[in-house]
Write a structure and sequence with these properties.
eight-stranded antiparallel beta barrel, alpha+beta
Length: 541
């Protein structure tokens, strides 16, 4: 029965198309070879191309315990792909005249703290609000993902305890799930309907997306739903399901077919949606005029010289990626139930197969041969650097004959310039008076300046003690033992704190910046990571 189910799933589509000519189904199958197994989870894929029949297929297993194969009709939790539907719902309310996207958020959510500067709904949508990210806050407070049930009430309780923002609203782009949970709250308060009810009535029913809903009850039975998994080594798997009763930032359930319907609508919207669709695909702008590549829950990118509009998602063992290429009328959705599936790579590989030679040739940036800095020039880079705005720490260290920045190998263009993996730009080493800095010159974004930290020789024992955070409603023990400083917590794993400068330590849990009183005694610290800055902890006497 199991093999028969898989064969049915794999036989649902026989061809894909390139230049209007049928492409053998084996071309699509070759993209999904790694997830096409009868003993492992996998993915569903859907392809829609203007004027050509849709194609969809399933690979791998929807439920390992029951031997159920993935089909194009399988339902997945799509994680952050949900965000575009939350943003679109709020935009529909604005189009109705029931709110303005430039309303202060506290007009609708008065329990949010009154910060020095007002946050607007539009800033929630564009991730420019400065609000600390809900998942980072909950994780720091001791919530275990994905095993602990997290409700909207839990999120609102921790968000409303935050006394400060990451940055002045509108000044930066930092991805924050908090903003999208607040969008769901705003929809409920303005419309009188939950986001689930509103999106069902105003989006999913009109578009015929019959297998899509915002999931607001983690115990609800959903026929056709996939289970999700993560690898545990040796070819074995473990169940990895998100347990959320919070939505807007996440918790949309859907199929590849329904998501194709949505993406096709974005390419050719009906009159009632046209104004909102146009606005949803406009880039956000920071207060200094810098444009960001994010619209209304949509990443607005360029790939191989063509527009690429979409979003990825990852929660527990679920992975999702949807992307449209408007110049070609092509939309692709890949939904997976394995944490190691990589659907964004599968989407792009599928696009290459479908578009064939219609896809512009890949432009490879011409590079001069890699420069080999002198020994003295290489030594000048080595050290620990800190961005005092974001509190990020960069360490440049030698490994063998190469230099590495936070584990990524530096490739030098000169003695004072370099690039490394995963940054769209370059870095430069500069001397400013007595300060040595590394400047990040990213493409299309503002510079960051990392200042070298002087080595700090101090007693690690001075940092030991018990610290509490009212913002997180939790306690950390900073422990000094065997010449090592560590963070202990009743629910979280113990992590080592590694010195990065005077009173600054890094760890897998984030950067700890300790404060002292006028007598030089350690009295507290702030916790910082990519999406959270300045969460306060005070020392217990």
């Amino acid at each position: 029965m199991r093999c028969a189910a898989i064969l049915v799933a794999l036989a649902l589509a026989t061809t894909v198309h390139a230049q209007g000519v049928p492409l053998p189904r084996r071309a699509l199958d070759s993209v999904f070879t790694a997830v096409s197994r009868s003993d492992a989870p996998g993915c569903a894929v859907g392809i829609a191309e203007r004027g050509l029949p849709r194609v969809s297929a399933g690979y791998g297993m929807a439920d390992l315990e029951r031997g159920v194969a993935i089909t194009p009709q399988s339902i997945f939790h799509v994680a952050s792909v949900s965000k575009q539907f939350a943003a679109f719902s709020v935009a529909l309310l604005a189009d109705d005249g029931r709110l303005s996207l430039d309303d202060p958020v506290r007009r609708h959510v008065p329990e949010l703290p009154e910060y020095a500067a007002s946050i607007t709904i539009r800033q929630l949508i564009h991730h420019t609000s400065g609000l600390r990210d809900q998942w980072s806050l909950l994780a720091a407070a001791g919530w275990r993902f994905p095993s602990d049930l997290i409700t909207e009430r839990d999120v609102m309780q921790i968000v409303t305890r935050q006394r400060a923002l990451n940055f002045q609203p509108g000044a930066e782009y930092v991805y924050s799930n908090t903003g999208y949970t607040l969008l769901a709250v705003i929809v409920q308060r303005v419309s009188g309907q939950s986001l689930r009810e509103f999106a069902h009535e105003r989006i999913f029913v009109p578009l015929g997306m019959t297998q899509t809903h915002f999931h607001d009850d983690f115990q609800m039975v959903v026929p056709g739903r996939t289970s999700a998994y993560e690898p545990r080594g040796g070819g074995a798997w473990r169940v990895s399901e998100p347990t959320f009763d919070t939505y807007g930032a996440t918790s949309l359930f859907s199929t590849v077919g329904d998501l194709l319907t949505w993406m096709e609508m974005l390419d050719a919207p009906p009159a009632r949606f046209a104004a909102v669709v146009r606005q949803a695909q406009e880039t956000g702008v920071l207060t200094d005029g810098t444009a960001i590549n994010y619209g209304f829950g949509l990443a607005l990118n360029t790939w191989r010289g063509i527009r690429a509009v979409g979003h990825d998602g990852a929660d527990a063992g679920y992975r999702a990626s949807v992307e449209r290429y408007p110049e070609h009328g092509l939309a692709i959705a890949v939904l997976c139930n394995a944490s190691n599936a990589g659907p964004n790579n599968l989407v792009r590989a599928t696009a290459r197969r479908v578009l064939g030679n219609r896809l512009p040739m890949e432009m490879v940036e011409a590079r001069a041969p890699e420069h080999r800095p002198t020994a003295a020039a290489a030594d000048a880079w080595i050290g620990t650097y800190r961005d005092t705005v974001s509190h990020q720490i960069w360490r440049v260290e030698r490994q063998g004959d190469s230099l590495f920045l936070n584990g990524a190998r530096l490739q030098f263009g000169s003695d004072t310039t370099a690039t490394f993996a995963n940054i769209p730009g370059w870095i430069s080493l500069q001397q400013q008076g007595e300060a040595t800095t590394i400047r990040l010159h990213p493409r299309g974004r503002r510079q960051q300046v990392f200042v070298r930290q002087a080595p700090a020789f101090t007693s690690l024992a001075a940092y030991a003690g018990t610290f509490v955070s009212t913002e997180l409603d939790t306690r950390y023990d900073i422990v000094f033992r065997d010449s090592t400083l560590s963070r202990a917590h009743r629910k979280l794993a113990t992590v080592t704190l590694r010195p990065a400068g005077r009173d600054v330590f890094t760890s897998p849990a984030g950067t700890f910046i300790f404060q002292r009183d006028r007598r030089g005694r350690v009295v507290g610290f702030t916790l910082n990571n990519d999406r959270v800055r300045g969460v306060s902890f005070a020392r217990v006497p």
